[in-house]
Amino acid sequence: MLGGGKDSAAAHELVSAGAALVDVRTPGEFASGHIDGARNIPVDQIAARSKEIDKTQPVVVYCRSGARSAAAANTLRGLGFSQVEDLGAMSNW
Fold first, then answer.
1. pTM to 2 decimals?
2. What is the CATH code for 8-92?
3. Which of 22, 23, 57, 67 would staple 38 via disulfide (CB 3.0–4.6 Å)?
């Protein structure tokens, strides 16, 4: 795990290599600014929309502070995603 942004270089490397970058904030927060290339799947929809994410590829999740991304990462792991990394806060990028 990235440990809430302790190694943002690892997140950059994963995304450069094809990992899905998922912003788990609200659509309004996403619209006000997000990391280039990220897709928005709010944390309260992550389970229902998990089929939009390729389980065979790494996934990097982030939010505003790290709380929602931790919850989303745990949900995805519970759904069988084995390569989930939690960036934590968007500012860690």
1. 0.92
2. 3.40.250.10
3. 23
CA–CA separation, 51 and 92 (whole Å): 27
Task: Please give the C-alpha separations between residue 56 and each of 20, 27, 53, 67, 82, in angstroms, as whole numbers.
Answer: 10, 26, 9, 25, 8
What confidence score (pLDDT) does residue 85 get?
94
- Active-site residue, 65 included: no
Closest CA to 60 of 35, 28, 26: 35
pLDDT given at position 1: 47
Q: Of 23-27, 39-43, 85-89, which range is least confident? A: 85-89
Query: 38, 41, 60, 63: which is the annotated catalytic residue?
Result: 63
**Tokens encoding 89:** 């806060």
Q: Where are the domains of the chain?
A: 8-92
| φ, ψ at 45 (rounded to 5°) | -115, 0
Predicted confidence band of residue 81 (pLDDT cuts 50, 70, 90): very high
